[in-house]
Amino acid sequence: MPTNLLRQIPPSFRRALLFLGFATAALTASEVNAQNLITNGDFEIGPYFQRGLIGGWAVGGPGFIMVQNSEGVTSGSFAATLDEGSNSQGNTLSQTIATTPGQTYILEFDGGA
Questions:
Q1: Inter-residue contact 73 to 81 (CB < 8 Å)
Q2: Do 112 and 71 touch, CB atoms closer than 8 A?
Q3: Do 34 and 105 meet the contact criterion of CB atoms below 8 Å apart?
Q4: How many angstroms separate the CA atoms of 80 and 1, rounded?
Q5: Is there a contact between 48 and 77 (Cβ–Cβ < 8 Å)?
Q6: How would you label 26-36 residue by residue, b for 16+ Cβ within 10 Å and e otherwise?
Q7: Can you give the pLDDT at residue 109?
Q8: What is the pLDDT of residue 57?
Q9: Full-prediction pTM beyond 0.85?
Q10: What confidence score (pLDDT) does residue 31 get?
Q11: Domain map (residue ranges) of the chain
């Protein structure tokens, strides 16, 4: 059954995520050799440098979000900048994924301010 990833995160934590300067996300089932369920979680798939357009993601709010390579990243070359143009209020980045009831998942992300 599809589950909206952003709705699974408590509201107080969601607010903290919106202020991140960049993020890399991965959601995996907690089994050995599990696959990544997030599409373009490392933001290495374009389009690049286009406000409001992130491959595999839904951008909401004012849309001051873009993929760029001018932010620090732990791996790869690109990151989602959630305050592009210094305006992060109301920006959202979400993705609907298929999950299985009763299955445990691990959500990992890399972020900075």
A1: no
A2: yes
A3: no
A4: 27
A5: no
A6: ebbbeeeeeee
A7: 81
A8: 95
A9: no
A10: 58
A11: 2-112
Contacts of 110 (CB under 8 A, 6+ apart): 23, 24, 73, 74
The structure tokens 């992300």 sit at 109
- The candidate with the shortest Cα–Cα distance to 21, out of 71, 76, 56, 62, is 71
Backbone dihedral angles phi then psi of residue 73, each to the nearest 5 degrees: -135, 150
Q: Report d(CA 101, CA 109) in Å as an integer.
A: 22
Tokens, residue 61 = 């709010």
Instruction: Give 106's DSSP letter.
Output: E
In this structure, what is the dihedral angle of CA atoms 3, 55, 40, 10, given to the nearest 10 degrees? Answer: -40
Q: For residue 36, give the DSSP letter.
A: B
Sign of the dihedral through C-alpha 98, 96, 45, 81: negative
- 51 contacts 100 by C-beta, under 8 angstroms: no
pLDDT lower than 50: segments of the chain = 1-23
